[in-house]
Amino acid sequence: MTGMGSMIEARGLKRTYKARGKAIEAVRGIDLTVQHGEIVGFLGPNGAGKTTTLKMLCTLLEPTGGSATVAGSDLRQDSVGVRRKIGYVSQAGSTSPEAVVGEEIMSHAQFYGIDRATAKQRGQDLLASLDLSDVWGRTCGSLSGGQRRRLDIVMGLIHKPALVFLDEPSTGLDPQSRANLWTHIRKLRDELGTTVFLTTHYMDEADSLSDRILIIDNGTIVAEGTPAELKKRVSGDAITLTLRNEPDAASAAEIAGKLDGADAPVVDAHVVRLHVPDGGRALPLLLAELTRAGIDAIGVDVNRPTLDDVFLTLTGRSLRDQEI
Amino acid sequence: MYFFRDTWIVFSRSMRLSLRQPLWVLIGLLQPILYLTLFGPLLQNIAASSGFVGDAWQVFVPGLLVQLGIFGGLFVGFGIIAEWRSGVIERQLVTPASRTSIITGRTLRDVVVISVQAIVLVGAAYLLGLRVPAGALIIGLVLVALLGAAFSFISNAIGIATKSEDALAPLVNTLALPILLLSGILLPMNIAPRWLQIASDFNPFKHIVEALRAVFRGDFADPIVWIGVVLAIALVVLGAWMGSRTLSAQTK
Ligand SMILES: Nc1ncnc2c1ncn2[C@@H]1O[C@H](COP(=O)(O)OP(=O)(O)OP(=O)(O)O)[C@@H](O)[C@H]1O
Ligand SMILES: [Mg+2]
Questions:
Q1: How far is the CA of A148 from the centre of ligand 1 (A)?
Q2: In chain A, which residues have their Cβ closer than 8 Å to the Cβ of B12?
Q3: What contacts B81, CB < 8 A, 6 or more positions away?
Q4: Domain ranges of chain A
């Protein structure tokens, strides 16, 4: 048991929704452990159960089974103790459009017993660090979608929680704001020792931000490890061939499948995908074979495995297909 | 127990938001005045013939006050649905704030708004000729505040439970209509047929209106006064219980 030392310790956490007499098993008994100061990425497609898990850990939703200790307090016995120590940034927003940004921040801080001067100082610092310095006196409704998203994050961090849950924090942010947010999240951990538990369905986000990744699919955790560990699970490098037409693609798949150590190629219209242990070595061979067969490849890509590949390997489905 | 602090935080945020919409506050204030000026004269003329006991204003203003308390509270649920949608309620639920304070703070704001409207109403009625003892006015305002609190709690609870304007609107209307028709607010129940009178006896608001009318007549000793006040307090307790139950149920 590592129970005492960890920030989150959940055992058999389960949630079944009842909707119109039908039971929906959103989370099917998951175990997870998050250490102090860790940044953990919770990755999974739409409807996998990420938000449901987060809400349970935040005391917003009672689990229908299992137990958890969050930030040193038992989820069921001492939910107020949990709430005191955590911050939560919901997927769905947190401010009234008519409310003034600064007032919304200060009012939220009061619940944690923070005085107005401190709240104002912290709020303005946080806004500035997320590139929102000039919005203090504006109404929340007048902010753009991405600005409002960053305001949600400021609200969730105002009391310097030891543990923060971020539900798809970068949804709707432009690339620069995302990069900025990632920097801020890393700084939170490095400077304040904050533990971060974030959900995302962006591979690159989970990959570049997380110390450890949990992959959830259909209410169960299907894999867990550092980004590097997870990528190792995928058999080698991905080769993507683009051909002129579908018959060419079929022939190319047959040829490519005979490469040393190759897995079964997947054909998708004009595109053939497969994995080989060493892409750099296999490629010249493959191209020579194709030329000999009179097939003209119009595009070739070799990629180191991504988390998308991991997900594909584990579940047989691509994460990217489900991202709309 | 941080209940009072948390209630104050929720209250002051809500109050600030209400004051940011001065037009709505103004329209809210206008409503009772419209009733007084457009409906009052009508009643003046029929009061004598219609079976009301006492001066027309003493009969009419208590009815208006009770109506203000009921309707001022009943429609606040729409606001909390909007707040639920924007994620504010969930954000507050995840803080250590007491669950009950999250709804009580909002109800308190409604009580303040309704009380101000009641004061304006009474002031305008005074200008038009209402003459009652000061104690009666105080009891009147307290009753309005209690009713406003009860209905604000109930409306907020229904709003949070249904999270849908389309569900709240018919529910509120179905609740309001019999309350209004069987309360003797607009016409005295003693001109009603027997069965209607019996039905209205089951309507607590009839007794509350009668209590206030007794007070306005100066009959402070009439036992109906106590019945009315106790009923109003009981309604607040019921509303608060519903509100706090509903809010706790959100995390179930
Ligand atoms: N209140 C609810 N009532 C009934 N079913 C629900 C409810 N909330 C979620 N679900 C269902 O539970 C499952 C998991 O939903 P959840 O919101 O946890 O997914 P998610 O991983 O956060 O997805 P997304 O990436 O779209 O945010 C889904 O099938 C969803 O339809
Ligand atoms: Mg989600």
A1: 23
A2: 107
A3: B159, B160, B162, B163, B164, B165, B168
A4: 6-230, 235-304
pLDDT band at A2 (very low <50, low <70, confident <90, very high): very low
Query: Which of A24, A171, A215, A222 for a ligand 1 pocket mutation test, highest count of atoms within 8 Å of Cβ?
Result: A24
Pocket of ligand 1 (CB under 6 A): A 17, 19, 24, 26, 44, 46-52, 91, 201
Give the Cα separation of A165 and A87 in Å (integer): 6
Burial group, residue A35, by CB count within 10 angstroms (0-12, 13-18, 19+): middle
**Binary contact (A92, B87; C-beta < 8 A):** yes
What is the bridge-based pairing of β-strands A163-167 and A86-89? Answer: parallel
Q: Give the CATH number of domain A6-230.
A: 3.40.50.300
Vertex A116, ends A113 and A121: CA angle to 5°? 110
Q: Residue A236 pLDDT > 70, yes or no?
A: yes
pLDDT of residue B182: 86
Q: Please tell me whether residue A226 adopts helix, strand or coil conformation.
A: coil
Residues of B with CB under 8 A from a CB of A: 5-6, 9, 12-13, 16-17, 20-21, 82-83, 86-88, 90-97, 251-252
Comparing C-alpha atoms, which of A178, A193, A217, A182 is closest to residue A313? A217
Segment B159-187, tens digit of pLDDT: 999 999 999 999 998 988 888 888 888 77
Q: How far does residue A299's CA lie from ligand 2's centre (Å)?
A: 36
Distance separating alpha carbons of residues A200 and A26, to the nearest angstrom = 17
Closest residue of chain A to B4, computed from CA coordinates: A111
Among protein residues, the one with the nearest Cα to ligand 1's atom 31 is A47
pLDDT tens string A275-301: 888 888 889 999 999 999 999 889 998
pTM for the model: 0.86
- Min Cα distance A262 → chain B (Å) is 49
Give CA–CA dist B151/A284, Å, rounded.
Answer: 78
Contacts of A47 (CB under 8 A, 6+ apart): none
Q: CA-CA distance, B236 to B151, in Å (whole number)?
A: 8
The protein residue whose alpha carbon is closest to atom 26 in ligand 1 is A46
Task: Kindly give the pairing relationship between strand A22-34 and strand A8-19.
Answer: antiparallel
Whether this model's ipTM surpasses 0.90 comes out as no
Q: Residue B47 has what pLDDT?
A: 64
Pick the CATH number of A235-304 from 3.40.50.300, 3.30.110.40, 3.30.70.2190, 1.10.150.530: 3.30.70.2190
Asked if B9 and A107 come within 8 Å (Cβ–Cβ), the reply is yes
Cα angle, residue A174 at apex, residues A168 and A176 outer, rounded to 5°:
105
